[in-house]
Structures
1.
Amino acid sequence: MQLDANRSSIIEAIDSGVLAGAVTLVWRGGQVLQVNELGHRDVEARLPMRRDTIFRIASMTKPVTVAAAMTLVDEGRLALTDPVTRWLPELADMRVLDTPGGPLDRTHPARRAITVEDLMTHRSGLAYFFSVTGPLARAYSRISTRQHPDHWLAELAELPLEHQPGERLTYSNATDVLGILLERIEGKTLQDVLAERIFGPLGMVDTGFYVAAANRNRTATMYRLTDDDTLSNDAMGPPAVTPPPFCMGGGGLFSTVDDYLTFARMLLGGGAVDGVRVLSEESARAMRTDRLTAEQKQHPFLGMPFWLGRGFGLNLSVVTDPAQSQRLYGPGGPGTFSWPGAYGTWWQADPSADLILIYLIQNFPTLGVDAAATIAGNTSLLKLQSVQPKFVRRTYQALDL
């Protein structure tokens, strides 16, 4: 089995100076078949990538937060149909823009309350600054995440919704809101909620919203590609060594390739891994089941026809038509599920092949017209967009899938 060919696109990017390094992993049928440790986690310090390198995983955080919420569903303390105003009164009496992209003062009332499922599927009407246009986009960009989550939520609640709750999917801060909901139900920080419900049971010892001082040297530096095709390390400062005031459930986690493999194996295994059950089979299946209507799939995702051959579960994309999906996004059998991150981190689990692939890099994107490519698991930088898809295709070819 010649898996080594899957490294070539990554090595080319490193050698050309547009990528510092990467850690990738191929797992199949209960075994790790390959781990690639390529390039450097810090180019200037000549620190090589290692299997235990810690990465900012951005939106790969979202399925973890949803899984923690589903443990509360399993306990009967939360339901997908619950209105979130039960715990988040700030989101009562929401208004909706009369026209997407239009003035913030031209609104009408929301027809119903936002539900827990709306948050998990990005159908709440909330947004990100890069997923909408006009005054609403500018208003979102002005809300600081460097404040207490209660203050952040209060500012968010003052803005109108992009559309009616449940109407369509708009990628959003909804999972950050879900994290605050979990904090209020449990009466503790999201770091503690996830540690007790996900990280501890699964043995994810290197995953959290901060990096312990002793592990700081293992963290990959965040790079950005400058206009002259050189890497700059000024994209982001060093990781926090204590939990931040606002643990963002939509994108704040640090993790390693092995920790995230355990999480992905848990979902692939129907809620359990290595004899440890975290979710009921029903909840794991719910996360992996397409919930979008045919009409909702007609709407582009960040300007891309993302839903061709794909659907969306509880913050997991799901392959519904492998032939159609492969033409745009690469191989993956029926039911293949994933959700990547904006810094180039990506993974997918393919039930039909009992296969998990993980690809971790640290490149700061430019969120704009290329946002969909970013969220799809590449960076928004053209010179890097083909690297991860080639890794995936060559892995499937080597495995004769």
2.
Amino acid sequence: ALWNLETGWRAAFADGRVRVDATAFYMRRERLQIRTGEQLVAGDPNTFVFYTGNAARGYNAGFEGAVRWRTTD
């Protein structure tokens, strides 16, 4: 299961020559599967294996932003 909460803001200034975008997000996962790995013999990269594991829950949170500036017409 994935629950996602996201909010954002967008604005233009200086007759549209400057634009600002900002987004904050939070994602919560329940009963997820994760890909992980393990090296079986230390120092021997040929013994590295990947496997899928289970996790009870996890989350991601962050902020994204962008500023665009058009200096001339």
3.
Amino acid sequence: MKNLLLGIDIGTSACKATVMDLDGRVKAQAMSSYPVYYPAPGYVEQNPEEWWEGACNAIREILATGKVNSDDIAGIGLDGQSWSAIPIDRKGNVLHNTPIWMDTRASDICRKVTERVGFDRIFSTSGNSFEPSYTTPKILWFKENKPDLYKNTYKFLQSNSYIAFRLTGAITQDISQSYGLHMFNMEKGVYDDRLCDELGVDRDKLPDIYPCHQVIGEVTRKAAEMTGLKAGIPVVAGGLDAACGTLGAGVYEVGQTQEQGGQAGGMSICVDRALSHPKLILSFHVVPGLWLLQGGTVGGGGAVKWFSEQLCAGEATQAELEGTSIFKIMDDEAAAISPGSGGLIFLPYMAGERSPLWDKNAKGVFFGLGYDKTRAHMIRAVMEGCAYALYHNMQTAEESGVKSDILNAMGGSANSRLWTQIKADVTATPIQVPASDTATTLGAAILAGIGTGTYKSFEEAVERTVQITRFHEPDMKAHDIYMKYYEIYIELYEKLKDSMQKISEIQNI
């Protein structure tokens, strides 16, 4: 009996693959990392072929454990980072590294297109602002700066659709990732051909749109040879990593909210209509008939990881000697510091900032340093700064009449009891943590289960696979303290944004 599902996640730092049984129990998992390239200021790229290599490595590692028989895999689900623009030719060759979600090279193009086409025209159709992080401006950047490459591009793919192509040979665009394309009508779920022309993107370079759970093909013999999988396993279209993670965290009904704590941070609120806000992000959920009103921040686990790599050599040595995690040691140090970090505030804009600022020039800042501050103060300040960024997005969502009563946490940062409690205290919102920290690959696996008929419904799938293990009630005394610092957090950006822009201009000279 085929009683296993494989979920593949194309993240920013690594490909993660997880094989689960039908109750969501992990049978085996593996991760294979790959680089991020920074060829020029504002340019942030990855090589999709290295994503595929990472996927092959992770799958082979899983099969090598002997814990999983490929014959038992009923289906494969995929998810990936947002806003790729992968140009492939008719033979499927990648013509250029893809700019990723942190890339802002198309800022000038965004300004020109918004002036020419009009903000209202674009926003009323797509439900999203025309910002350089999205896919559309990146496609236009290729058209303007590499016209021969644009001419030779057969289709532009997303991260998960590229892996789907390598597995099956099918060229697809899933509906949840379509929010990166501004000619996509967010209410109707189809391309607007007229807006395509107005924006200057050739419609025939965009793949057809598929539901996230739809089987789009089977593992080919060539893919089987490269991965070790058995040829013929069904593969579904998959979806946006944040949306799959939202499903894997148990958020599949109107009013529920996922709190994201991976490389980036943010939240996804489940709504039953295309409810947009110009400072937030709107996408289809991977669950049919639902949308996600999202806040996506740069500040997340990546900020703590950066701090650990640059400023925690002592903790790294200690972790190695004690056979523990460096992040556990950092947690313990930060826990000894009181809420507010003794007046030390961190702006987590480590690669510009996405919602709700949409400022490519935003910079990371420590404010309030003094001789009395220790590394422990700084670690806690980083955690609090990311929590402030989350709260900023939640406050912005309330402007659209959407309030989160409880958050379902996902991502690596949810493993930190301290950081999760900080987020609960800052946002004054209870947070519940599902049992698995593999929510994203679980969501992708659920899509495979739905598409292959292994599950009868999303409700059945979530009930079988998602269990809540921890609950964090907000400490309102701590919240009152945080709100005093949050006010300064907001003021700091407003007072520093002109200086941030000047630094960016100097760097670009």
4.
Amino acid sequence: AYDSYRKNQPQSKKLKSTLSFSDGRSEFVPAEPEESRMFFSNNAMVNQNNTIFTDFNSGTYVSQKSVFEETFLVKDSTRKINWKITDETREIAGFMCRRANALILDSIYVVAFYTERIPTPGGPESFTGLPGMILGVALPHENITWFATKVTEKVVDDKSLAPPKKGKVTDNKGLRKTLDNAIKDWGNWGKAYWKAFLI
């Protein structure tokens, strides 16, 4: 029955989000997901848990994270990612993008595609630090991707780009400590949640 259930469930889950940016700031906001019948659809790795405001001028960000039944407001410096830029290119949402590779959280392999035609060094979630906007990100070993489907040129009201305000205030170190204490006895299952909440 278990195998039959898995075979009859969708094998992927598609979510939508919006990345708005203007004058050295950006805001990544997940859209309300449609109801999913996917196997393990409530797993943290197949959900978007974060609303992220990034200030590139100050090198800081504020992330509102839903972690189990609690909401955290993580305020910290932007993640320093040691990108390695390659010669590979591909087109995403009408923009020619160059590939860059990196490793985050010591073990998560990241492939990103960015375009210099949009000079803001931002991207989806907390992926930043390339010489142009990141329009595509893949975590191959985690089976997760973020790819832009449309880029709209319009004036963004500065007041609409504001950091989230609700949640228990902490920083990256504090959130890691909280997660380590909460899932220390969960084994491999806990590692998946740890990655999902810290990406």
